[in-house]
Amino acid sequence: MTTVLPLSLSAICTLACEPTLLPRVRMAIAVIAQEVFAEDPTTPGYPLRWNLAKTALTPTEAQAAQMAIGLVVTPPLLQAAATSGSTAGPEMAAAITDEQLLGAIRRGWSTVAGVAPAVSAAGDGQGAT
């Protein structure tokens, strides 16, 4: 299956490196970490999810930058950035809503935590990609 990207790789790279996006990514990581702390301990993959939350509760700029790369290539964020009609970083970043950013982190949390896809799928959908 060939993926058709709504933006060029150059534009995606610009977005992933956009300085105005990184503080939002850091805050979104912290918000989702708090959500994970409140999860039922029987949530599939909980120990791994909790450990990632503990580690990422105060994300460094480097951690946020690493996560931003994975986030901006998710279809919802790519599409939002493409709708800006620009390839300038600030405009593409501004087109991504907070809910889209939080949703992308929620969907990818288990994967980043190392929870196997079969375990994630057995749960309530949190973090399943």
Q: How does this structure look, described?
A:
The chain is mostly helical. It has helices spanning 9-16, 22-37, 46-56, 61-72, 75-82, 89-94, 98-113, 117-122. The two termini are 17 Å apart. The mean pLDDT is 89.
State the helical fraction: 55-70%
Helix and strand run = HHHHHHHH
Output the structural class: mainly alpha
Total of DSSP H or I helical runs spanning 4+ residues: 8
Instruction: Write down the overall mean pLDDT.
Output: 89
By DSSP, the count of extended strands is 0
Shape: globular
Strand residue content: under 5%
Outline the secondary-structure elements.
Blueprint: H1 9-16, H2 22-37, H3 46-56, H4 61-72, H5 75-82, H6 89-94, H7 98-113, H8 117-122
Helix pairs in contact: 1-4, 2-3, 2-4, 2-7, 3-7
Brief digest:
The protein is mainly α and 129 residues long.
Key terms:
single chain; 129 residues; mainly alpha; 64% helix; 0% strand
